[in-house]
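Reviewers of the previous submission asked for a worked example of the structure-prediction workflow described in the proposal, so we include one complete record here. The input consisted solely of the amino acid sequence. No template or homolog information was supplied to the procedure at any stage.
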Amino acid sequence: MFKKVLVVEDFDVINSGIKMALEGLNIKEVDYISYCDEAFLKIKNAFLMGTPYQLIISDLSFENDGTPQELKSGDELIEKIRQEFPKLKIIVFSVEDKSYRIQNLYKNLKIQAYIWKNRNGLKELKKAIDFVSSSDQFYISPELNTTIHPKKTIEITDADIFLIEFLSKGLLQEAISKKLKEKGIKPSSISAIEKRLKLLKEHFNANNPAHLVAIAKDLGLI
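From that input alone, the workflow returned the following structure tokens.
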């Protein structure tokens, strides 16, 4: 089991729950930091002092309270950690459930676990810490398992891009159907559009069409 852990979280109520979870695992040395810049400096100093952290537990989103920060998110902190401490074990504990963001953390930033902050979050966090301490396998909350092991993958086509662009302009499905027909894109029926939208929302883990458009913009698709 880990002996020295750093928790990067800016809400005290969450820290209280994490503290109880870590005490239940008999982890004796735990530090709590609310800012990403300070967290990285603490990680670096601990390494230079010969007493490195064995595990980092970090949120992804941090409230802007006016304190200047170079690292503004957990993603940026983790990327910085990976540049200098590639073997340091990291668990993300977040409310974020967007598949593309989790995929980036898992595939590119090589985190060890991703735990969703829901009603079972603290229980899952304890399981993840125990698992990660003795395994090199990736651990993820069961509810988010399909984000890294999708039931099926789809190819994003030019027709999908047109569809999302039309949605971003506020067009309804009937109007989108006409636009697709004008461009000679098939299928272009309203029922086909409904089915494709459903598939795209599932693929990107979007809650609604507006959310799908926002994700597509974040990814640079439109």
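The CA atoms of residues 75 and 147 lie 17 Å apart. We consider this example representative of the routine output the project will generate in years two and three.
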